[in-house]
Automatic annotation (TrEMBL), chains A, B:
Native species: Victivallis vadensis
GO MF term list: DNA-binding transcription factor activity; transcription cis-regulatory region binding
Domain HTH lacI-type stretches: 8-55
Top-level taxon of the source organism: Bacteria
Gene3D superfamilies noted in UniProt: 3.40.50.2300, lambda repressor-like DNA-binding domains
Protein name: DNA-binding LacI/PurR family transcriptional regulator
Keywords noted in UniProt: DNA-binding, Repressor, Transcription, Transcription regulation
A Pfam match: LacI
């Protein structure tokens, strides 16, 4: 008798049915994108083996998954050009399973592809984008959209969600105040922060200086070669009780690399360095700096539901959402 | 043969079953609040007549209604003291059917009742409130909450939604600019606007004055007896091309009543008077003033879903939502 593996999870089921896990999942969700014959065949295998995954049981009770399945497809506009954008990557990682759960088709298109082939747009009913992609003007305003982060609302018929900078600054200030720092700097890269007087920068400077802690901006460029030299200079220019605030994950990486190459990461990282954005980019620095978690998966979920509402009811009043960061651990 | 009316809608079904339309609706939605016997009896009548209303068909596919039915009960805190608050009334009118749809229990408690019997709170899992009720401090912060309007976020574990005053002011300024007014005033009652430097007031003054239209505040008290006299004085003090901006529905009512008693409503209302809040209080003035629709039902829906998310996942980062007004018709 041949060994017969038990159907314990979706992958086992897919293997037995000779389909991908995604197809098996769609069959169990009764997706309209599969033929009835295929669904029936897969369901029969699942049934025979008594396989009813937990999540499908839950879905039958509450059925949130089917709620928007008549909508789509959604275009996710990927901004990355030369380097992967950690915001885009984190949003995508959260959106993929959600889209599956909601049963809505979506496709990732890079902004360069879109600029080269604007006719791609015709396939899509909605747009999910982040920051301020320059190709936005190619996309007709009748297409409902949602924007995550960015400088200003870029278009009509579009909701927007961004992080609450007032509360981000409050966390950073409180962290550095507790550390007893005597001076501090916020580190930002000028091709990333294209918002003049970004509130995260101006409020941090104002609040730290109001506490009597002399605080300045440490601005740098993407291709600067003297970052570490300037950092050394800054550190040696006064009290060594310094607070370091990284504007976002990429600025934080530069800061931590700089401190590391000066042999100062051990000294400063756990107590005096705080970075806005709990990104995978920063988890490998040891000892860990403090990270402000913006909860991008939740932000993606709020953005997505706003987009679905707008797709269902075009013309509803727009929402601008400020999401608070998670409190520090 | 007796005439037998066909079951064409919910009211026909309710009549045949000898129940209210609400009960018939609950039966078709399989509400846990009815006994199985009652539901079965009503369903059998519906089935016999081949009556499956459209909305229930839709619901079986998408099932949004059941999504949060495991939550509740929710306390709706009613702020009204001496007069009915039109905001509270509009929110309640929208929330009632929504709560029914979601299958979540809720109860309206007036702030005075709550102050007299704080033990009422023990029954509730969540709080829905608007503006800044003084009794808020009685309510433990572990209870998840959502706030509509109000000055500032009043508590932890609470999301908040309010109107986007920048866009409200833009609509009012554009309306009065098009009317060609040469001076204008914003009318507000000082016991309603308890936010110092309310953005709706300060931005309106700034933007109108920047356009070269001399603009002032017209502040009044709830019990002022000289409102009409002061209004007459203001109108006679310069050019008759005046723009009138009512801060909200109640201020707008006072303004329209004042113009009416001076015999000037006909002259000014349709072209020169604009009021923030499309309230039922203002629809009876003829000719109609322009009304800025804040879409309170949508605001209530967004607030409610934020509250449900917070009930399901306590501790998720808070959202502060600014909702745009609807464009003027």
């Amino acid at each position: 008798m041949a060994y017969q593996r038990k159907t314990r999870n979706l992958h086992d089921l897919a293997e037995k049915a000779g389909v991908t896990a995604a197809t098996a999942s769609m069959a169990l969700r009764n997706s309209p994108r599969l033929s009835e014959a295929v669904k029936e065949r897969i369901r029969r295998i699942a049934e025979k083996d008594g396989f009813t995954p937990r999540s499908y049981n839950r879905k039958q009770e509450n059925a949130p998954g089917k709620r928007f399945s008549h909508l789509g497809p959604v275009l996710f506009l990927d901004n990355s050009v030369d380097e992967t954008d950690p915001i885009g990557a984190a949003l995508l990682a959260a959106l993929g399973p959600m889209m599956n759960e909601y049963g809505v088709d979506f496709q990732v298109v890079n902004q360069r592809e879109l600029a080269a082939q604007p006719e791609t747009l015709e396939k899509f009913d909605a747009l999910f984008f982040y920051n301020d992609p320059p190709v936005l003007e190619l996309i007709p305003e009748r297409i409902p959209a949602v924007q995550v982060f960015g400088w200003e609302k870029q278009r009509r018929n579009c909701d927007r969600i961004t992080a609450n900078d007032g509360q981000i600054v409050a966390l950073a200030v409180e962290f550095l105040r507790k550390a007893g720092v005597e001076r501090s700097a916020i580190f930002w890269r000028d091709d990333i922060v294209r918002i003049p007087d970004h509130p995260r920068i101006t409020r941090f400077l104002a609040e730290m200086n109001a506490l009597g802690i002399e605080t300045t901006e440490f601005r740098f460029g993407k291709y600067d070669t003297d970052f570490t030299g300037r950092l050394k200079q800054y550190i040696e220019a006064g009290s060594e009780r310094i607070g370091f605030f990284g504007f976002n994950a990429r600025c934080g990486v530069k800061l931590c690399c700089g401190l590391d190459s000066l042999g100062l990461l051990q000294k400063y990282s756990p107590t005096n360095v705080i970075v806005c954005d709990n990104s995978v980019l920063l988890r490998d620095f040891w000892p860990n700096p403090a990270l402000i978690d913006l909860d991008l998966p939740l932000m993606a979920k709020r953005a997505l539901e706003m987009l679905f509402w707008r797709m269902e009811q075009p013309g509803i009043p727009e929402a601008f959402v400020l999401q608070a960061p998670r409190p520090l651990q």
